[in-house]
Amino acid sequence: MTKDKPLRKEHTVFHKISYGQNELDNLRKTLESGHIGSRGRNTIEVEVKLSKLLDHKKVLMTTSCTAALEMAVRLAKITVGDEVIVPTYTFPSTANAVLINGATPVLAPVDLSSLCITLDTIKQVRTSRTKAVMVVHYGGMSEDIEAISEYCKNENLVLIEDAAQALGSSYHGKPLGTFGDFGCFSFHQTKNETSGEGGALTINHGDEDLIKSAEIILEKGTNRIAFSRGEYDMYEWKSIGSSYSPSDLLMAFLSAQLDEFIDKLHKRKMQIKKYIEVFEALKVDGLSYFIGYQDEYLSETSSMMTRSNAHLFYLRFDTTHDADRFYKAMLEDEVEVRKHFVPLHQSAMGCQFKSAQCDLSSNDQLFDRIIRLPLYSDRSELEQLHDLSVLKNYFTGLKSCTAEEII
Ligand SMILES: Cc1ncc(COP(=O)(O)O)c(C=O)c1O
What is the mean pLDDT of the chain? Predict the structure, then answer.
């Protein structure tokens, strides 16, 4: 295999947190204010900023997307004996939220091009006990969420959107996370905007009673939020709840992060555009890749309905052998790549939740064959050039090798 020297033989990382003086100033101001517990000025400010991004829905900040998912399932009154449809290709929190509320997750396969469940796969695993559907907008992409939402409304099923990876994505111009009854977002350190750990719940149909119940669950089962608005003289224990409110210190960081939202989105999109251009030119057999933004950037007219938030870029290999070889080569060439999501039906815990009526084997190879490439908003030109030159060398080198050399 012939290889040019990569531009810079130095470790390039998969992900870095971007932050600047505004985050640091906000942290300092908040420390000096003396209020670093829950629901301070920053928390309220972040809720307002997010509500603007999310079609003016009611937003409550949580300690994580996991917490928001747990709250959504509880608010939907899903409990023992109920089933909730969940994609098998997701992070465990999606299914855990169902279990923690006493119900049963039922795993549905994802479509191999979008990596999301479809109306078809939902119908395949639905039973008379199905109470809700949890869709995951993988990589900020979505299947036909309008059709899924319509189906859930007509069939009286609760729709929860796990939009952990999807803040800033939209479908037909409407933000993902605002189609269902509830939207759940993550601000974990791996996300486009972060508070280290953090999340948000949107309550999408403006039901005041539901919003009040959510505020109580959020604040340890008390009506402290209503009390702080002056609606009560004292607060008390009202129902089951938990400690789902984040520290205002974390929200100080997140508030500054959200002010750079558009700029960071642009930088991420430009990196995806470059990846796509390279793979369009290379035309590698047996390889597909993330398509978010392809149409928008490679042609003037866009037919795509989902606008992704450029959260990630992945390659999907047709064979495990090719994926393994690529993975090892990238690590040797100092490009940090990642695999993720052991499909739940193949995990130690999740194998018990396979649907009796639906074959999940089409998703068996996803962990082995999907490889994510570096992407973060402050990735320098030099890092990008390095990674792209390594990728080009790898794939052009493969093309010029004989089959024997490759094996
Ligand atoms: C699809 C999905 N759901 C839920 C989560 C959990 O988010 P958090 O870490 O904010 O609890 C993640 C985390 O990456 C995720 O990717």
Answer: 91
